[in-house]
Amino acid sequence: MEIxxxxxxxxxxxxxxxxxxxxxxxLNISVNEAWAQIEVQLKRRADLIPNLVETxxxxxxxxxxxxxxxxxxxxxxxxxxxxxxxAAADGMLTQALRGLLAVAEAYPDLKASxxxxxLQEELATTENKVAFxxxxxxxxxxxxxxxxxxxxxxxxxxxxxxxxxxxxxxxDPQDRKAPNVKF
Amino acid sequence: MxxxxxxxxxxxxxxxxxxxxxxxxxxxxxAALTYFGQSTTAIVPIAVGIALVSVWxxxxxxxxxxxxxxxxxxxxxxxxxxxxxxxxxxxxxSGLPMPKVAIVIDSAPNAxxxxxxxxxxxxxxxxxxxxxxxxxxxxxxxxxxMAHVANRDTLVSAVAATTAGAIxxxxxxxxxxxxxxxxxxxxRDNNANPLALVFSLLILILAxxxxxxxxxxxxxxRESLADATAVAFTRNPAGLRSALEVLAQDSxxxxxxxxxIAHIWIESPLDAKAVSKLFSxxxxxxxxxxxxxxxxSLN
Lengths: 183, 299
Hints:
heterodimer; B: mainly alpha; four-stranded mixed sheet; transmembrane helix (chain A); membrane (chain A); MamQ_LemA (chain A); LemA-like_dom_sf (chain A); transmembrane (chain A)
């Protein structure tokens, strides 16, 4: 009788251990998957840029500095590997693209062209997809980091070789700009 | 109230209501036993069985069944790339798999989601909603539909329908037995308290009504939960809020008015005046707008 009770308790403890371990591994995999999604979306955006630049160039030849900014930012974004580098390059590229679209505003012929209009929808959805994949990644990092730091999962983190992960933080000067108040 | 507390509150209330359903089934079984005696013991499993079989089929094949009931047509990415772009955005934000997409040819703006699980999800839009809404508004609507998928609302409403159905069948069977003076006469010598008999009778008569009320209340809580979850996906309450404002201003309703699937649309297709608030499958649209506005002011 006692043996059964003891075995039962051991089995329960084992189940508990396995559950904690698996939870950490699962959270870690989710973060990896979310990261892969960011890379997919950034790649999509990088692929879109040459076409966009060419289209704008056709109508606005004298905006070389804007084109250069986009091309440099794109080059940086495609070579970055760490989370922080990718995030920084991503922020720069977002900025440069905003500049390019602002330039396009000044050319009505360009804005009316069918090619540009379809590119604009592509760019809008790509920007959203990039933003949502960042958000999804950060949500997953948040749950992983919470699990790594809180009882009881924190006791298993070392054993499962799961550590805290880095958030994907994009520097966006527009976010910090104080709102203009006019009276 | 931010979207996280809103989600938690609505989940809690759903669980409370489902427990209420369970208690109601138990009450009806208890009343049947008190009123008719032991001969009715087998009736409860029979009623639950019938309800389970009838609801389970429609739950399992919900994606196909609803397609035929609403006349929705499945579409491919090439048919509407912009809509697919928007849906892909929401799948990335939610981490859900890509659902099947369908269109209902109807000028009334509306949308719905169904499917037994996340892998068999189907979301559908009327041509009307695609015409009148801009990018942000549509994104809000899609997020609301994908929130139903994420929260497994087809399952929740199937459970609610099963219990409500079982209660309806049960009380129907028992009323017939009463009519034909069934079991009661055989157990006449049981010394049941007359007060208990009156209570049992009351329970048997009122239970189907109570079950309907609980079912509608669950549906309303799931709608509020889907609104909150949609905000969790897009972090943009303004998009869904202005979409709901468009729906509120629009007085046209989807042509088919099948009661049985009214709960799946984003805006109730039933005429608002015809349904009283307690039986309504959706919370009042102005209330939903107010909750989303409160979330906006947090940002």
